[in-house]
Amino acid sequence: MLFSTDAFSNDNNEVSNLTKSQSYDRSEPEAVQKKEKFKLVTEELLAPLPLGAKCAPRPDRVPERKYSFETPPDPIPANKIKNTYTAEIIVVGGGISGMGAALTAAEQGAKVILIEKMDTFQARGGCNAYIGSRLQKKLGIKIDKDEILLALQKYGGDRTDQRIYRMWADHGHETIDWLMDMTDAAGIEVKINQYPASAKYDFSQEYYPSYTNVDHMYDQRVMVGCIMKNAINKGVVMHFNMRAKLLLRQDRGRVTGVLAQNNAGEYNRYNATKAVLLCTGDYASNAEMMAKYCPQTDYLPGKLVTSTGDGHQMAMWIGAQMQGTPPAPMTHGFPGPLGSDAFLQVNLKGERFHNEDVGPQNYTNAVENQPGQQAWQVFDSKYPDELKCMGLGFSRVIEDTPELRGYVEDVCVKANTIDELTRKMEVPLDVFRATVKRYNDMARAGKDLDFGKRPDRLSTVDKPPFYASKGSYEMLVVLGGLNVNMKLQALDKDGDNIPGLYVAGNVVGNRFSVDYPLLLPGFSHALALFTGRTAARNAADTEENNSQ
Question: What is the value of pTM for the model shown?
Answer without folding.
Answer: 0.88
